[in-house]
Design brief:
- The chain has about 475 residues and is an alpha/beta fold.
- The chain has 3 domains: about 140 residues, no CATH class; about 100 residues, 3-Layer(aba) Sandwich (Rossmann fold), CATH 3.40.50.20; about 160 residues, no CATH class.
- It has 18 helices and 11 strands.
- A 5-stranded parallel sheet has the order 3-2-1-4-5, sandwiched between helices. A two-stranded antiparallel sheet has the order 6-7. A two-stranded antiparallel ribbon has the order 8-9.
- Helix 11 crosses helix 12.
- The protein is globular.
C-alpha cells in the first residue's frame, strides 16, 4: 500500500528539484539582465545543489516523514519552516564551499546565490502545492487509509480529506462502533466495512497500513494492542476540539510517555516581538499604500452616495468593542437592503443565518466588488493596527451576534488581538462554513508562532495578487 505514497514522494521530490532549478535560473538570468558580468553558463557547475536539497529535505522529514514508508505530511507551517531551513543550509554550504576552495567567491555572484536561496525558500511550497493538486486531479499518489469511527470527528475528517489535495490520504473504508453507520460517509462514497472488530482483518486483506482512529480514548486503548499488530501508522484524533500541536513534542519520564504542548502566546518575548513586527509592517504598508488612500476615496465618492469610510463595531481582545475601518464597499442603505432581502428571500435568510455572508450580496456596489476581490477595502484597517486595536495577523474580528457560535472556544479566541488577515482568510475565506471558521480561528490562537504568521502573510500576498478576496 505504500506504493501510492512513494509515487507522492517522487512527485514532491520532482517539485523540489524544479523549484531550486527554477530559482537558480531566475536569479542568475535576472542578475545578468541587470548588468551582471558573469557568464550564466558557469552556474551549471552547481547542479549538485539539486540532489543536496532533496537529501536535506528527506533528512528533515519533509517527504511525509519517510520516503520509504510515507504517512501523514507535515503541517503546512512546519513544512514551510523546514523548507526554509533546508534552503538556508544548501546555499550557505555553496558560499562556504566557494570560499574554502578558491579562498574567495570572486567569479560568482554572491547576490545571485543569495537571491536563489530566497527564491527557493519562498517558492518551493508553491511548487509542491501545484504537484499535489495535479496528483489529486489525476487520482494518483493518494495513500489509502482506514477510518475508525463514524462520529463527529470521523465525519469532519472525511469531509476535509475529500477535497484536500495537501494531505494525500484517500479513505478506503470506514468502521463504525456504537454510533453505527453514517449517512454522510455513505453519501460521500466511502464504503462501510463493518464494526471496529473487523478493522485488522480487512486491513490485512486490502494491505492498508495507516489507520485514522477517531474513537473514544477508552475504546482506543482497548484496541491499541490489536491495531499495533498490523498498522504501521496510527493517527489518533479523539476530539474535534483544537489543542496546541504546533511545536509539541514527545516526552518521557522513566517509562512514562506523554506530549509536551507549547503555548506560544504565553511567552512574553514573542508577544512583544509580534506587536513590534505588526507595527513596523503596518507602517511600511501604510506608506506603500498612500496612492490608494488618495485615489480610492475619490472613486468611492464618485460611484455611490455615502461616506468614504465604513466603521463597524467589532469585538477585540477580551471582548472589548472597537470600530473597524474599511473603505465603504456597500450602498449607504445597506442595512435596509439586507432586512428587505432576508424578509423576502428564504434561501438568502438561511445563508445569512449560517454564514453571516451572502454569495450574491445586493448591498455591494460595483466598485465595492472590485475592492473586496482585491482586499483593497481593508487597507484602512492599518489604522486599527497602528492604534493597537488589531494585529496584522490574527483571528478575524467578529460582531456580537457571532459570539454564540464560538461557545466554549470564545474565551480562547478573545485572548488575542483580531487580525487584518489570518488563517481563515487564507483557507477558503467566503467558501468556508461557519463551523470551520471557528475551528480555524481557535487553531490559530492555540498554535500561533512567528512561522505561522509568516506562512499566513505569504499566503495573503498570493491571494491578493490572484484577487481571491471576499465576495
Amino acid at each position: 500500500m505504500f506504493t501510492q505514497g512513494r509515487i507522492r514522494v517522487v512527485a514532491l521530490g520532482t517539485a523540489d528539484a524544479a523549484s531550486i532549478a527554477f530559482s537558480w535560473a531566475a536569479a542568475v538570468l535576472a542578475y545578468r539582465a541587470f548588468g551582471g558580468r558573469y557568464d550564466p553558463a558557469v552556474y551549471l557547475a552547481f547542479w549538485p545543489v539539486i540532489p543536496a536539497f532533496l537529501v536535506i529535505n528527506a533528512a528533515l522529514g519533509a517527504y511525509h516523514g519517510s520516503w520509504a514508508y510515507p504517512a501523514a505530511p507535515l503541517p503546512p507551517v512546519e513544512e514551510m519552516r523546514r523548507l526554509f531551513l533546508s534552503s538556508l543550509i544548501v546555499h550557505l554550504a555553496v558560499v562556504a564551499f566557494l570560499a574554502m576552495l578558491f579562498q574567495t567567491t570572486v567569479g560568482y555572484s554572491r547576490l545571485a546565490i543569495a537571491a536563489a536561496g530566497v527564491l527557493t525558500a519562498v517558492l518551493t511550497q508553491s511548487f509542491r502545492n501545484w504537484a499535489r493538486r495535479a496528483l489529486f486531479k489525476l487520482g494518483i499518489g493518494q495513500i489509502p487509509v482506514f477510518l475508525a469511527g463514524a462520529g463527529e470527528v470521523g465525519r469532519r475528517l472525511a469531509a476535509i480529506l475529500r477535497t484536500d489535495a495537501y494531505t494525500g490520504f484517500r479513505i478506503a473504508g470506514y468502521f463504525s462502533g456504537s454510533e453505527g453507520k453514517s449517512i454522510e460517509l455513505d453519501d460521500a462514497g466511502i464504503p462501510h466495512l463493518g464494526s471496529l472488530k473487523n478493522i485488522v482483518p480487512e486491513a490485512k486483506r486490502r494491505d492498508v497500513k495507516i489507520l485514522l482512529a477517531c474513537q473514544d480514548e477508552r475504546l482506543f486503548r482497548c484496541q491499541m494492542k490489536e491495531f499495533s499488530s498490523w498498522f504501521t501508522y496510527i493517527e489518533f484524533l479523539p476530539t474535534a476540539n483544537a489543542f496546541p500541536v504546533f511545536g509539541s513534542k514527545a516526552v518521557a519520564f522513566d517509562g512514562l510517555g506523554g506530549l509536551e504542548m507549547v503555548n506560544q502566546a504565553r511567552k512574553r518575548a514573542l508577544r512583544i516581538q509580534k506587536r513590534a513586527l505588526d507595527s513596523i509592517l503596518a507602517a511600511i504598508a501604510f506608506v506603500a499604500a498612500l496612492p490608494f488612500f488618495v485615489v480610492l476615496p475619490v472613486l468611492v465618492k464618485l460611484t455611490s452616495r455615502g461616506p468614504v469610510f465604513y466603521r463597524q463595531k467589532r469585538l477585540g481582545i477580551r471582548g472589548r468593542p472597537f470600530r473597524v475601518w474599511k473603505f465603504r464597499s456597500m450602498y449607504a442603505d445597506a442595512d435596509e437592503r439586507l432586512k428587505r432581502l432576508i424578509a423576502e428571500d428564504l434561501a438568502a435568510a438561511k445563508e445569512w443565518a449560517s454564514r453571516f455572508k451572502l454569495s450574491d450580496d445586493p448591498r455591494v456596489t460595483p466598485l465595492g466588488r472590485f475592492l473586496r476581490r482585491t482586499s483593497l477595502d481593508e487597507l484602512p484597517q492599518l489604522f486599527n493596527v497602528l492604534r493597537g486595536e488589531m494585529a496584522l495577523i490574527g483571528p478575524r474580528p467578529i460582531v456580537d451576534d457571532e459570539v454564540k457560535y464560538y461557545g466554549a472556544s470564545y474565551e480562547t479566541f478573545a485572548s488575542v488581538l483580531p487580525g487584518v488577515t489570518g488563517l481563515w482568510q487564507v483557507s477558503g475565506r467566503s467558501d468556508t462554513d461557519y463551523e470551520r471558521r471557528v475551528a480555524l480561528d481557535t487553531y490559530y490562537v492555540l498554535n500561533w508562532s512567528p512561522w505561522m504568521d509568516l506562512w499566513i502573510l505569504l499566503r495573503t500576498a498570493i491571494a491578493v495578487a490572484l484577487m481571491r478576496g471576499a465576495r
